Amino acid sequence: MSGEEFRRIGHRMIDWIADYWSRVESFPVLSQVKPEEILSNLPANPPEHAESGAWDAIFRDLESVILPGITHWQSPNFFAYFPANSSGPGVLAELLSAGLGVQGMLWATSPACTELETRMLDWMGGMIGLPGTFLSTSPRGGGVIEGTASEATLVAMIAARERAFGAMGGEEPPLSSRTRTSPPRGAGERGRADGGRAELVVYTSTQAHSSVIKAAMITGIARGPDDRERVRLIDVDDRLGMRADLLEEAMNQDRAAGRVPFFVCATVGTTGTTAIDPVDEIAASMGRAGAGAAGAPWLHVDAAHAGAVCVCPEFRGMLRGVESADSFAFNPHKWLLTNFDCNCFWTRDRAAIVNALSITPEYLRNAATETGKVIDYRDWQIPLGRRFRALKLWFVIRHYGVEGLRAYIREHVRLAEVFESLVRSDPRFEIVVARTMNLVCFRWKGEGEESDRINKDLMQRLNLSGDIYLTHTVLPKVAEARSGARHPLAGRLVLRMAIGAAATQERHVRAAWERIVGAAPNARS
Ligand code: PLP
Question: How far does residue 151's CA lie from ligand 1's centre (Å)?
Answer without folding.
Answer: 10
